[in-house]
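Students often ask why we bother predicting the structure of a whole assembly rather than each chain alone. The short answer is interfaces. A chain on its own may look different once its partners are present, and contacts between molecules only exist in the joint model. In this exercise we take two input lines together and write out one structure for the complete complex. Read the inputs first and try to guess which parts will touch.
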Amino acid sequence: MATIAQEAVRGDSANPRQWPSAGVDRIPAWVYTDPEIFAREMALFHHGRTWNYVGLECEVPTPNSWKRATVGLKSVIVVRDREGEINVLENRCTHRGAPLCWEQSGVAKGGFGCPYHQWRFNLQGDLIGIPFQYGLNEAGGLPDSFDKSKHGLTRLRVARRGGAIWATFDAQTPEFSEYVGEEMLMALDRIDKGRKLKLLGTSRQVYRGNWKMWIENARDNYHATLLHTFLTAFKLVRADLPPARNTAYRGHTVGRTYTRPIVDAEQEAKAVQEISTFRRDYGLNDTETVETHTFDFPDGMNMGFQMFPSCMFQPHLNVPSYRQIVPKTVDTHEIHWTFFGYEDDDADMLRRRLKQANLVGPAGFVTAEDGEVIVKSYPVVDQTPEAAQIVEMGLRGPIGAPTMLTEHAIRNFYEHYRQVMGL
Amino acid sequence: MSSEQPMSKQIAATGRLERLATLSELREFYEDYAACLDEKDFDRWPEFFTEDARYRVQSVENYDRGLLHAPMYCEGKGMLKDRVSATRVLVYEPRRQRRAVFNVRLLEEGAVIRSQASFIMIEQMLDRDPVLALTGRYVDEIVRTDAGFLFRDRTAVYDNYRIIQNLTFPI
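Now the answer. The structure tokens for the assembled complex follow.
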């Protein structure tokens, strides 16, 4: 166990946390367990200068339709107004802080009314009605100095791309295109170019562990080829298969992989010697769960990405989904999955998408294993805050050579992380 | 029952008795299913279903909106077997589960029985305290065969806003 005892470990304000001198080849364990670090992350990332996923356009298909979403720790309302524009409003009455919307979704005829004192807001978030604002019978009411126009709901800035809706709290956040970069814009546009998304459903789950452990896991191709029997046995992701072409930009990562990689028998023989979870004897009765001959894109590739701080799009085979990592506390986070297909899917394609969704989500043959490992690890991590995690995979040989045997994308995340956090 | 009772009453009484008998069989079927999973007798689980059965575990949010995505989705007995064979190769925290099935309701009798029941599933990880991990209701279509009742369609519609950790075994 590498320790950073000599570096400052104390978290009090007199002695701020210091990153190990080895830089991003090490991750100090306190980054997963310190509540002050967590509070700073929320302020600087999710509530700050970042763009965050809040839902799909097709989840609010008609004027007045709305859904609740989360940006960081804050509840927001995503609503389509009468002109078809999307507004994202903080779900917080400016009077006394009650949430306006208590259901998951609905239709806001006449705007939003607070259940507590019935203050009324329109779909733009303007405060338009206050019961007894002028009192009754010359008694009570608000003073004349009270200006309704100054007390509308907090409005987030909105971007729409890739069939999805994105929002930011901060007026200083760069424009969406600038924030995500060229490669991710290309990946986003592939999702909905010339096709209409069709919502298949959502799932949520909660894990005990720090949200960043999931972020790292999704960037960790090294584990993918070792932990997941379903990826290795069914040749979906494996060290001998062509690795994803990844790019990194401002904490984001974009990857392009073959939907159905071709296996080279010689390479396979070499690789599987090192993979203890590889089982030649393990098969499925219904191979549609792990196989396809129909590609969603003519180039036979799937493009996935991770948008800093905590949204992912990671298609396998024919099952695209947006995956939102939702931090709750320093030691818990939720994952919100949104599964979709397209309006022009035929019955075969729909069936494939539903079957392949068994790979991911709260009962995912692949993704559940990640969660189990994180949940088992967290108490250990929590008890050893002075420890540092080792992320040196991929530092052997030429840097940037395409390979799965690297923790490069994790180091990229922490490079950006340290910059923004001032660590 | 007195032979002096009018015929209509006797027929009605017989109908009630038959219905009670079916309900009793149904409860036994449901409890056997729950025990099978509690005991992790996974090879027996697919045998509760017909060959082309559909089995889903789905949130009430999706179910009520008519959305098709379900975290567990099986079409046909092959996929049921795949669900349980995976438990032998996947990595997960060791655990025990215990199911309670109650409020069994026989909604329709005929060639296909339509029924529902409430369920709770208590889960206990090896080193941790029991947790009420899942609550919801079963929505079922059942057929009578020589082998007894079989599900031709079972949906476990869970009320949970979020799954606690993962769904590792069938519900």
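Check your guess against this: Chain B has one domain: 7-158.
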